[in-house]
Amino acid sequence: MEKHSISDIEKDSFGTSAPVSSTGRIYMALGVELVACALIYVNYDKLNASALGAWVPQSLLAPTLLGMSSACLAQLVNQGFLMKQPRRFNLSRLAKFGIWGAINAVTTNMFFDVLRARLDMQRDAVTAVLLDQFVNSPLCQLLFVIWHSIWDDLALGPLLRTTYPRSLKTSYMFWPFVSIFTFFVLPHGLMFPVNCIANIVWTVVLGVLT
């Protein structure tokens, strides 16, 4: 489950300060990502059953594609509507969050598979929620902070002392409700796709708050 803050620093794809660019590129990319997310979501089961999907461990093709696409969509929403003027099409940040979306998708989907194998999802829904919030959530936050440190070439220590506890605390204002809905209402096949939708909303909310 993806839960992280949005930096106010904008750079171009080469990591240097970029001149003001047209927002048309952002809106065009946003349209492409909307279509891509919709197509992946509609064909989710078909992708995992495809020949290519058979080569991916634990049917991770569709989750990886959906996680990457939804993360890119959320980042484009932030670039196009929530960033302070002047708005720029930031390819570096788009790649950063797209790759993170894939990483988060793999870990989250595997976590759901472990829960399904170990627990009776109808009888042990409370246990699933607790494990999600006190194991999966801190782990996902930690992985993102590490990834953020690597991508932006930042010292990990200060991020662990500031960004990590702050983002984890903020996440508990949103994700427990998603987790309860996920494990008490949804069938297993819809858990991850709905989680991706929640991730889009969460990233947009963080863009407003930061």
Automatic annotation (TrEMBL):
Task: Give the CC-aspect GO terms.
Answer: peroxisomal membrane
**Record's superkingdom?**
Eukaryota
Under which name does UniProt file this protein?
Uncharacterized protein
The keyword Membrane appears for this protein: yes
Which InterPro entries does the record associate with it? Mpv17_PMP22
What keywords sit in the KW lines? Membrane, Transmembrane, Transmembrane helix
**Pfam family for this entry, one:** Mpv17_PMP22
Family per record: Belongs to the peroxisomal membrane protein PXMP2/4 family.
Where are its TM segments located? 26-44, 56-77, 97-115, 170-186
Native species? Babjeviella inositovora NRRL Y-12698
Q: Does the keyword Metal-binding apply?
A: no
Cell location: Membrane
Q: What is its main location?
A: membrane
Membrane topology per the record?
Multi-pass membrane protein
